[in-house]
Design a protein that fits this description.
This protein is of the alpha/beta class. It has 9 helices and 11 strands. A 7-stranded mixed beta sheet has the order 6-5-4-7-8-11-10, sandwiched between helices. A 4-stranded antiparallel beta sheet has the order 1-2-3-9, with no helix packed on it. The protein binds zinc ion.
């Protein structure tokens, strides 16, 4: 068991804030960030990506591609000739989209199985199996070499987020852009649901606040350009499955009904934009 002691961002004391089904939630008295103890090593292996909620691989691929197309179209300028790195690239769906838009793509992921899949999907791409720190130490990624760094659903999985941001900024070109999606612990859904918030999961250990991001920016030579609520594009089938999976009570029943009704009305595969308690953070590396 890994104990959470001081805040990894501002080093202030942390204290028990509330309880969740996945263990106690600690809050920093300085920046307000929240932390879950990493209670066990999560095996980021083949099975990790098969733990979705009963969708076919085809459906998962469709949802992923729609979301990544949207993210790149809305928040990244022209990618032609740009060097893009996806941190936590998984099986490479975002990289595939970026490559089709003309980017020279690289990726890194701790899941070796996923990296093998990504390499098959993206001949010519540079993809590292391991942590970003290991990739930099081994000279796989050079300092000041990327125009764009993307990290979707990855920051909350990392214990030492300050180290992660330091590494990302180190390999970004001056003026380079960073785009991240992560759970927003200050969102309405988080405030309303308390310890029952759906973003509290075994593998989510870090929940950054806006103050924490501002502190990281001050220390690590980047600016936070924009923080906006992030919506995901999901199908009713998926929403129904998630509700059924996560709870046994009212939400479970609701999930069953959403699924049934959507199938009845033949809209279970239609894609909707829906707030999932996440934020989209855009940063820029300062010029020296
Ligand atoms: Zn703090």
């Amino acid at each position: 068991m890994q104990k959470v002691r001081g805040c990894p961002i501002c080093e202030r004391e942390i204290a028990l804030a509330q309880r969740s089904a996945h263990g106690p939630i600690f809050m920093c008295r300085g920046c307000g960030s929240k932390f879950l103890e990493a209670r066990q090593e999560i095996a980021y292996d083949r099975d990790y990506y098969h733990s979705w909620f009963g969708e076919t691989q085809q459906d998962i691929e469709r949802i992923k591609r729609v979301n990544f197309q949207d993210l790149l179209a809305r928040h990244v300028g022209s990618l032609k000739g740009k060097k893009l790195l996806d941190v936590g690239c998984a099986t490479g769906f975002l990289l595939k989209e970026a490559q089709e838009l003309g980017a020279e793509v690289s990726g890194v992921d701790v899941n070796e199985w996923a990296v093998t899949q990504a390499r098959e999907k993206l001949p010519g791409a540079r993809i590292f199996a391991g942590t970003l720190a290991e990739a930099i130490r081994g000279g796989f990624f050079a300092p000041a070499s990327f125009d764009v760094i993307v990290g979707t659903d990855v920051i909350e999985h990392v214990t030492d987020v300050k180290a992660l941001f330091r590494e990302m900024v180190q390999i970004m070109l001056p003026g380079g852009q960073g785009i991240f999606t992560l759970p927003d612990v200050e969102s309405l859904s988080s405030r309303l649901m308390g310890g029952y918030w759906f973003q509290y999961k075994l593998e989510h250990v870090t929940f950054l606040t806006r103050s924490a991001l501002a502190l990281l920016a001050d220390e690590l030579d980047f600016t936070v350009e924009r923080i906006t609520p992030h919506k995901k594009k999901l199908t009713l089938e998926f929403i129904g499955n998630v509700l059924q999976y996560h709870n046994r009570g009212v939400l479970h029943l609701l999930g069953c009904w959403v699924g049934k009704l959507a199938r009845l009305l033949r809209v279970s595969k239609v894609v909707f934009s829906i707030g999932t308690g996440e934020m989209l953070v855009q940063i820029k590396k300062l010029n020296p």
